[in-house]
Design goal:
The protein is an alpha+beta fold. It has one domain: Aminopeptidase (3-Layer(aba) Sandwich), CATH 3.40.630.30. It is built from eight helices and nine strands. The chain is globular and about 55 Å long.
Length: about 240
């Protein structure tokens, strides 16, 4: 997977009825997406709902945003397990196929090679002009978000049964089914392309919005204590 380069032979995207999903390895080169990512993590409401006291809102300049995305997602997720976050952008009628279908439509298409190049444009110029609304992604929780294992802790399943779903959407787009549509596609892609067997997730206890999203995706509450955090609920979903 390329990093900050224009090598389309190593790039791909996922199309859903309303959105285009682009791996961070490509999206990190877009000024527009970095700006959206920084804006989200500087938003107090967004951070409080999604992360609680664990991750207070913070303001980054562009260099800090790029470094954070590269270190936290590309190096720890994409380069290690070949999966990670996807930038979620609106499908514009001037660039992508027209259509604005219901979020209940589970169809998605993986664009590679010439199909990707046609949609992305030379040097990803079309994608760079997209309107980004958030992100949805997957990561190996055992090497990213979970605390280190201690003596006496139960033995964990294999990493492909410990794949954590994560997502974030700009508050101005809340309530439009973005997470549900994007996450369904990302999870199905990971099953078909990466052999993922089980998904996990964690939410702040007060974050009923995310809890409802996970339930709609098929997640159920689990009695695990992987994150060892009393303020959080843990969720699980077996791949099908």
């Amino acid at each position: 997977m390329g990093l900050d380069n224009g090598d389309s032979s190593e790039q791909f995207a996922i199309l859903t009825p309303r959105f285009i999903l682009v791996p961070t390895t490509t999206a990190i080169s877009f000024n527009s997406y970095r700006a959206l990512y920084a804006e989200l993590h500087a938003n107090v409401d967004f951070c409080q709902m999604g992360f609680g006291h664990h991750f207070p809102a913070r303001s980054w300049n562009d260099e800090e945003t790029r470094d954070w995305m590269r270190t936290r997602d590309i190096e720890r997720s994409w380069q290690k397990r070949n999966l990670g976050d996807f930038a979620v952008g609106l499908r514009g009628p001037s660039t992508f196929e027209p259509g604005n279908h219901s979020a209940q439509n589970d169809e998605f298409t993986i664009l590679k090679g010439n199909d990707y190049a046609r949609v992305a444009g030379p040097n990803n110029v079309h994608l760079a002009a997209s309107e980004w609304v958030g992100y949805s992604g997957l990561r190996d929780a055992t090497t990213t978000s979970m605390p280190p294992r201690e003596p006496g802790d139960p033995v964990l399943p294999s990493w492909n049964e410990m794949v954590e779903l994560r997502y974030g959407v700009s508050p101005k787009f809340w309530g439009q089914g973005i997470v549900q549509e994007a996450s369904k596609a990302v999870m199905r892609w990971s099953i078909e392309e990466r052999g993922i067997k089980r998904f996990v997730a964690e939410t702040e206890r007060e974050n009923t919005r995310s809890a409802k999203v996970l339930q709609k995706l098929g997640f159920t509450l689990s009695d695990t204590n992987y994150w060892k955090e009393p303020s959080e609920l843990e969720w699980v979903l077996a791949a099908k």
